[in-house]
Amino acid sequence: MKLQKIVSRLQELHPKEIDLSLDRIKNLCKRLGNPQDKIKAISIVGTNGKYSTIQAMFAILKEAKIKCNIYTSPHIKNINERFVFNNQELNNEELASLFEEIESANNNEPITFFEILTTAYFLKASQYPDNINLIETGLFHRFDATNILKSNLASIVTSIGLDHLDWLPENEQNVEKIIYEKTSTLLNSNIIVAKQSNKEITDSIKKTISNNSSDKYFHNENYSFTMKENDFFYYEDQFGGIKLPMPNVKGQFQLENISTAIAALRTLNDFDIKNDYIQKGITKINSIARLQEIKSGNFKELVKDHQLFVDGSHNPLGAKVLNEYLESLNCNKHIILGMMANKDHNEYMSYFKDIATLTTIDIPNQPNSIKGKELKDKLNSFKNINYKESIEEAIKSIPVKENDIILITGSLYLAGEVLNLN
């Protein structure tokens, strides 16, 4: 209750949820002794795959007995997920105490909630100067609150695509502008660029970072992976190759994220990341709402022996890689869909082929989401499309047969509701 009250107060300090500027957070961090200058960080920017890449690195670093602090956004089930220190989430009491310290230092001045959260993270992280910080950038990078570091160990650029276009001027709503926003101010250290959806995007990234003096590592140029039979894949870079077991997360896109994580960690000269740590770590990845199978709980009881997945994909690039996984399965696929109002709903669903049924729903507790009935009307090109008010009703309404799977997707907020209700 105390934590909720503090969060409510902090959310009222600025009239906007997002106000792209670095001045407010720089001033607040200066009052606190610039804690961001006292940490060792790996920055993760991009559109898709940031969270999964972070979780892969975290799993490997834990095997190497290297302690981590982790900052991610948004949270799925509760705000504590954003604050991991010494490999553990802060509990409610610890987080409330941290927020109170930041609130006092801010002295009621206008500042966005995300800037407050980021300052809180930097302050707490500075208490663990030997830990590696895995820091996910928010909306964009150039004016993102996390972009006040003066140095870092590496910057990872995950796959970049179209998302959050409503935050860009109308004449600049294109992938080149997004690439510029995300990569033009990367620090001089190491830059690891993940597999992109096409050569044009990779070339645009290269052009944007051409004057950056970092050592640069590109997928398929400086590191790569190949699928092998008998449940393993092969990773290779300038340091050599590793035969790796298949990870405990599903989808080809996860192999891309894992390979990027491995490439990043192997560029760090001060840390001895042995092959054994990698081999063991990638079988212990904790990935919430990224093609996560629901194996127990209220909703699992409704689907009985059928497989139920939840995935927080919410943009075209996410839909594309999600469909690639679905197409690898020889069964009927049923999608339950809820989305935020500002997304391109038709573009998102255009990537899904061979869907048995599509059921739209309302996302609980999200005033900025599109109503399920309206979403159904927008997607009327799908033959077997229905609307149900709740997740439970949607699951019950699907005519599943043997080996069918049900996938709930379209929003991280929806994924959080699914996991909480389950």
N-to-C CA distance: 22 Å
Shape: globular
Q: Order of strands across the widest beta sheet?
A: 2-5-1-6-7-8
CATH top level of the largest domain? Alpha Beta
Q: Mind telling me the CATH superfamily name of the largest domain?
A: Mur-like, catalytic domain
Q: Which class best fits the helix and strand makeup?
A: alpha/beta
What amount of the residues lies in strands? 15-25%
What is the average per-residue confidence, as pLDDT, rounded to a whole number?
Answer: 93
Q: What helical percentage do the residues reach?
A: 25-40%
* Biggest sheet record: 6 strands, parallel
Count the domains: 2
Q: How many strand elements?
A: 17
**Unreliable stretches covering 5 or more consecutive residues:** none
Rg result: 21 Å
* CATH domain topology of the largest domain: UDP-N-acetylmuramoyl-L-alanine:D-glutamate ligase
CATH architecture label of the largest domain: 3-Layer(aba) Sandwich
Number of helices: 15
Give a description of the structure:
The chain is of the alpha/beta class. The protein has two domains: 2-281, UDP-N-acetylmuramoyl-L-alanine:D-glutamate ligase (3-Layer(aba) Sandwich), CATH 3.40.1190.10; 292-421, Mur ligase, C-terminal domain (Protein-Tyrosine Phosphatase, Chain A). The chain has 15 helices and 17 strands. Helix 6 links the parallel strand 6 (154-157) and strand 7. The radius of gyration is 21 Å and the shape is globular. The mean pLDDT is 93.
